[in-house]
Design goal:
The protein is of the alpha/beta class. Helix content is about 30%, strand content about 30%. Strand 10, helix 6 and strand 11 form a beta-alpha-beta unit. It is elongated, with a radius of gyration of 22 Å. Keywords: Flavoprotein, Oxidoreductase.
């Protein structure tokens, strides 16, 4: 039996495994190899790692975990269930038992159904200005007004460029006033798709056939947590997200969750910090259990 299985091998899961391995815990990381940030050219806002390609960050993290005896397993987790005094983690070809679980399975971005949008995602169709704003600073950028938070996104993106267009299918008066006050130009009308040439975004096409030239487009996707393993165990949700305490502990004893699976705002550095915090809590939880067993 493993002491801890970490499900998800991004920054949060790997940092949790690193801290646990250095605490001399038997830890296994199971990862399916489909990171959310794979399309991005680099990680940003992470001190000493700014601009590093996501795949390189993961490879370095895996090597560090293995250096301290942690195990890396490439597989999908098909099921997670309570079993006796621990848990069973069902993989594609076998099942592993563990005392504790840390889930770091992230979320998926659901984009508007517009031709070409998904293909440009992470390149010049973007979401987070803190992640990508510097790379498009001063350029003509657009913000797709498809969600309630799109106005906030446009107000924020304006920090990186003086030439921001908000594409408004519908827009209330308070939102319109806020954008105008921020110096964001508003283009009314339904968006039909993006214009790409030479593997670069060139503009946004409206329903009337006109094209507004833009070199980057910010979109607010719907965030959908990959939390089926957690909810299947009975972890409580609050406002659509699995609830955790400051250490990442869920409502189910023995189960922690970190990163985007429980926090849609978490960036790479935030997820890594959450992983370290959860690892320390898991280690102490195991120590307390060992003390109880020793006193019997």
């Amino acid at each position: 039996m493993e002491e801890v299985v970490v499900i998800g091998g991004g920054a949060g899961g790997l940092n949790a495994a690193l801290v646990l391995a250095r605490a001399r815990r038997q830890v296994m990381v199971v990862d399916s190899g489909a990171p959310r940030n794979a399309p991005a050219q680099g990680v940003h806002g992470f001190l000493t790692r700014d601009g590093m390609p996501p795949a390189e960050l993961v490879a370095a993290g895996r090597a560090e975990v293995e250096r301290y005896g942690g195990r890396m397993v490439s597989s999908e987790v098909r099921a997670l269930r309570a079993a006796g005094d621990g848990f069973e983690v069902e993989l594609a070809d076998w099942t592993v038992r563990t005392q504790r679980v840390i889930v770091a399975t992230g979320l998926r971005d659901e984009l508007p159904e517009l031709p070409g949008l998904r293909e440009r995602w992470g390149k010049d169709v973007l979401h987070c200005p803190y992640c990508h704003g510097w790379e498009v600073r001063g350029e003509p950028v657009g913000v797709l007004g498809t969600r309630p938070e799109s106005v906030h996104q446009a107000v924020l993106v304006r920090q990186w460029s003086d030439d921001v267009v908000f594409f408004a299918d519908t827009l209330d008066e308070p939102g319109r006033a806020r954008l105008t006050a921020r110096g964001v130009r508003i283009v009314d009308g339904r968006v039909e798709g993006v214009v790409v040439a030479g593997d670069r975004l060139r503009g946004v096409r409206l329903a009337d056939g006109s094209v507004v030239e833009r070199s980057a487009l910010f979109v607010a996707p719907a965030f959908v947590p990959n939390d089926a393993l957690l909810t299947g165990l009975g972890c409580a949700r609050v406002d659509g997200w699995v609830a955790v305490d400051p250490s990442g502990r869920t409502s189910v004893p023995g189960v922690w969750a970190v990163g985007n699976v429980v926090d849609p705002r978490a960036q790479v550095v935030t997820a890594a910090a959450a992983g370290a915090t959860a690892a320390a809590a898991v280690n102490m939880d195991l120590i307390e259990e060992e003390l109880l067993e020793g006193a019997r």
